Amino acid sequence: MKAIVIEGGELVWREVPEPLAGPDDLLVAVRACALNRADLLQRRGAYPQPGPKPEHEIPGLEFAGEVLEAGARAGDFAAGDRVMGLLAGGGYAERVSVNWRLAVRVPEALGWREAGAVPEVFITAHDALRQCELRAGERVLVHAAGSGVGVAAIQIAKVMGASFVMGTAGSAEKLERAAALGLDLGVNYREADFAEAALAATDGAGVDAILDVIGAAYWERNLRALARQGRMTLVGLMGGAVAEGASLGPLLTKRLQVRGTTLRARPPEQKALATRAFETSVLPHLASGRIVVPVDGVWPLREAAAAQAHMESNANFGKIVLEP
């Protein structure tokens, strides 16, 4: 089969062996996969795939496609099923092998491009909001509102009953498009202090929950923006991992909770639980159309380098998709 392989920090289109599928696995013909920030880090050597180093390092954390073969212990899946799911790596390929517990059926309402853009960011966003212990009627701040995780989190927060969702992005266009997905207040981080905006919008109380992909650069302002007994889940470090001179006082005085989480490095059992929670709580809304999947652009798989360059420019709104 053909796949994109990382070699010397470059993405190379080459022939590789087809993946092996065991009795608990599905062998899938990939119809679409999608980019994630982790792919950029992996290409640079900063985020290797968990486990032993593979002979061919193929990036890609998600896929959608048709089941070619289902193992004897692969649940009730069968050849011909339309599925999408999570991978620890290997998605930039014509075929993938995945444990059946990390796959779900694709709703009829979703095309291949949309389905390929769902698993990683929608499961991440849902899991992070659950870790924030988000309750109906609460107020939420979502950073990077135009990113894949951002557009997923805005919509999931709404269906979870959030009364107010605000978000940050670097352009008015992204915030306008996020508003169409349910964003109540958008803040251009290039022009305004989101913490001040959060306090102003809540009569000084602050937001109850924050989903943050930025990290160190937003630490102080996140703590200012949180209400008493607020919760924050950190799922990315785009703004750095070290917050020099950070004050810990608000954690005590406001009785805040901060959690860090990743999805890729978790044990398969934990990822399976997150997948099933998504299947129960989010997938029906994707099937009904209440939640949509914004696709920014589509590239042929062999042009993955150009697609990653587009992501590095921060120009995308929603997901960037690759098609074998």
Question: What is the structure about, briefly put?
Answer:
This protein is α/β, with parallel strands linked by helices.
Question: What are the SSEs and their pairings?
Answer:
Layout: E1 2-7, E2 10-15, E3 25-34, H1 37-43, E4 62-70, E5 82-86, E6 95-99, E7 103-105, H2 112-116, H3 119-131, E8 139-142, H4 148-159, E9 164-169, H5 172-179, E10 185-188, H6 194-201, E11 207-212, H7 219-225, E12 226-234, H8 249-253, E13 257-260, H9 268-281, H10 283-288, E14 295-300, H11 304-312, E15 319-323
Helix pairs in contact: 3-4, 3-9, 6-7
Structure description:
The chain is built from eleven helices and 15 strands. It has 324 residues and is of the alpha/beta class. Strands 3, 4, 5, 6, 7, 14 and 15 form a seven-stranded mixed beta sheet that branches. A six-stranded parallel beta sheet has the order 10-9-8-11-12-13, sandwiched between helices. The chain starts with a strand and ends with a strand.
Shape category = globular
Q: Quick check: average pLDDT?
A: 97
Over the alpha carbons, how many angstroms does the gyration radius reach? Answer: 19 Å
Distance between the termini: 10 Å
Total strand count, please?
Answer: 15
Specify the CATH homologous superfamily of the largest domain. Medium-chain alcohol dehydrogenases, catalytic domain
Which series of helices and strands comes N to C? EEEHEEEEHHEHEHEHEHEHEHHEHE
CATH top level of the largest domain is Alpha Beta
Poorly predicted runs are none
Percent strand equals 25-35%
Percent helix range: 25-40%
Whole-number tally of structural domains: 2
Number of helices: 11
Which class of secondary structure composition applies to the elements?
Answer: alpha/beta
CATH-level-2 architecture of the largest domain: Alpha-Beta Complex
